[in-house]
Amino acid sequence: MTHLPASTSPTLLGLRPIRLLAGLSDEALSDIAQAAQFTRYRRGQTIMTRETHERDLCLISAGRVRVIMLAPSGREVRFRDIQAGGVFGEIAALDGKPRCATVLAQEDTLIARLAPDALGPLLQRHWPVCERLLRGLASAMRDLTDRVYELSALNVQQRLIAELLRQATPAHDGEARAWIDPAPRHTDLAATIGTSREQVSRELAALARDGLVQRDDDRLCLTLVDRLSDRLAGLATTD
Amino acid sequence: MTHLPASTSPTLLGLRPIRLLAGLSDEALSDIAQAAQFTRYRRGQTIMTRETHERDLCLISAGRVRVIMLAPSGREVRFRDIQAGGVFGEIAALDGKPRCATVLAQEDTLIARLAPDALGPLLQRHWPVCERLLRGLASAMRDLTDRVYELSALNVQQRLIAELLRQATPAHDGEARAWIDPAPRHTDLAATIGTSREQVSRELAALARDGLVQRDDDRLCLTLVDRLSDRLAGLATTD
């Protein structure tokens, strides 16, 4: 990582893409830019490490990051990818405990770090920013709640179907097919639904044998979306 | 449930136990009490149903509630029990989408419901309340993140050990033993770690055979806490 010296420090321009700060005046953005520490990371670098004690709120000025945890077995548990304009690190910034996940730069990435003692005054002064942060936390909690449910109550095939349906774009209104373009990598699916790559490959092969999915060049076609939904809703849980 | 008519409506007294509102003046509490709708639920009644569209923030004036989801298979996925003084329903109150979980009264319970359009002004006017809500959301996100990790990367025995260690009270400093008193019910453990009651019973029997846990009257004794921790950290994942 590279800390940028003050002379070359991106000014408020670096904060313009941040959705959390949308609508703030140039003056307010300048104040935040002065309090922020801008840091560049190269693709693949670790931006944040689980269990460490730093507590900055991180604003993604440019680039893309991935939030993960690594199991002792080496298995990656993937939480979310966040694009430029998004934020991460809210949990430790707000509750004061160590980092609960690890964050990696997926591209060359520019982060504006805001120290926790600058966050409180910012939220107090600008209610729309505070409201957006509250709404973002609520939405992240909703996603995590759904994911705990799926991991607890659905078997691997059902979790795979749920994830494929989330990723797919319907071909046309009322059509039975939907597409994922490009086709998702089996390792990515495995890290997202909490299983092994081998198990994803087995379950995709089983869905293909049943005529429910079909590889088509670089895309994956869900051939019968309704029947996939039925299978998701109806199958009994297995352990 | 019983809506209380205005004449018998609990006044600010009903809001005094709510930790989110701690430190507010009697005048501020009276304003909130007037905006709130107090409702009584009997033990076992449903207070909130997943997928419904009401969006009140719910303050637990008295009693205790349980947040769950039910799978089509009938399996219960348990999120958390919340005591008097706590709040629930923040997610839909903040992001405006349908309820993402179901909430049941575990005892006779008195809820003060605050409509979403009363929540914004309350948070804007009282920064300590807003800060406490932010911290509570962050802490809930941390718990959910850990749970997604455990469900994704740990096998059933490891998840069981993690939950037993969370529930246990060490006997004395430096001692190898810890106790859970009373011993947890197998169905409760199953709903919490995302497996079946039968599987919990099998894994507890396996831990007992290895001398790691022992039933002692109404309590469960973890006889070798260090070896349980090692097993949690070291075992490879199985699927």
From TrEMBL, chains A, B:
The keyword Nucleotide-binding does not apply. It comes from the Bacteria. One of its GO terms (cellular component) is cytosol. PROSITE patterns: CNMP_BINDING_3, HTH_CRP_2. Keywords: DNA-binding, Transcription, Transcription regulation. Residues 154-226 form the HTH crp-type domain. The keyword Transcription regulation applies. One of its GO terms (molecular function) is DNA binding. Residues 20-140 form the Cyclic nucleotide-binding domain. This is CRP-like cAMP-binding protein.
